[in-house]
Please model this.
Amino acid sequence: MTIDLAEEPVTGTRVGSFEELVAMTGDRMLRTAVLLTGDRHEAEDLVQSAYAQAFARWRLVARAENPVAYVRTILTRVFLADRRRRRVGEVAWTAGTDVAAAPVDPALRLSLLDALATLSAQDRALLVLRYFEDLPYPEVADQLGLSHAACRTRASRALARLRLHFPDLADQA
Amino acid sequence: MMKLHDSLTDAVADVSADLPTLLDGSRRQGLALRRRRRVLAAVGATAAVAVLAGSGYAVAAAVGHDPHTGASWAASPGPTSGATAPLTGRSLDAALAAAVDHVADGAFTAFRGNGGGEPMGEFLFAPKAGGAAGLVQIDLQRLSSYGLSTTYGCGQPYMHDCASQQLPDGDTLRTYTDESSGSAGGYRRYVAEVLSPRRDLRLVLGAANTQQDERHAVRPDPVLSPAQLSTVALLPWWDRTRLPVEYVEAGRRLPSYASLTSSGD
Model:
């Protein structure tokens, strides 16, 4: 699976070597991948695939304005492309409609990773990029190929879904 | 109140990457990606290469030896029976070792590979003739996924001493020297590729003058010649999903093997 990143901005020089990039960002990328996939082994494969694509196009990555963001974009797109292909374990959201959420047994306590796994891959990626990576909504929307409005709407619904499991969740989209 | 940022951070606070393994795996996968992309642009046809005849060719008994573990194994108990079994990373390594053993004397170590959608296998081969051990790799890809025509030429700038020939059975054999894919000074890799529409197979077989990090040239020339690689690449039983059952059995007995994927195959 290869991802077309021809539209990424390429200016300046920020990272000296591929080894430096991996050393600088490896832990962070793996944590992001664990949140996306919910599984350590899957996350390792995902991160390796993302770095492999960065290595394969290293001349572009090294000259990118923000190589770290570049690799994170690859990671997100590889993750979403893989999920689209597999369509496994995903909970479908009906876009554009407000479906009443099923009541959740309060005795059923999920871990945060388990709760994230109840979301669609795109919603999971949205929350991880927005609330773990602290990216602004416009950037999250761009990475996920959504309009800004749709991005906020999906975030609101995804948070509502999480709130079923974590009623004291403070965040609002 | 629960803040999502803090909770997400806490959830993965103890996660840290095995950076050397990640770096090595990424480089390896990235090099394979680079090579694969280059094929997409390959057009035209030229030159000629010696052809290995005979569809009934079988690799005879081959015995490998791992100097690190002292273990030996028979890659094949004898001529292949014709029966096949599902390919695994181990069996791919065993089959490749047996095939290499048929064309060159030497020792095999550091087996790595994976099965799955795009099987890969590799090991270090130390020729009996001397010199450091060098990397031998095989990659089995689905030809149709590249949308290639049956014309398989030598038009790429990284291909030196390239030759391509369509074979009587419809397959194409291409050999070339690649001196630009690795990051090592003096890097050299001989490659034999077989493009087989009837098997929906693109087989890429390479031998390098580096070891597995592909960063440091350890000898002047790769451990196998283009002619030796061609002989191995043209064996008729190569397939993306199944191998002669003898190699599947032999793969289970490899004295050392590391999977290139976390799934363990």
Summary: The radius of gyration of chain B is 19 Å. The helical segments of chain B are 4-11, 19-40, 89-103, 226-233, 245-252. Confidence is low (pLDDT under 50) at residues 40-77 of chain B. Chain B has one domain: 43-259.
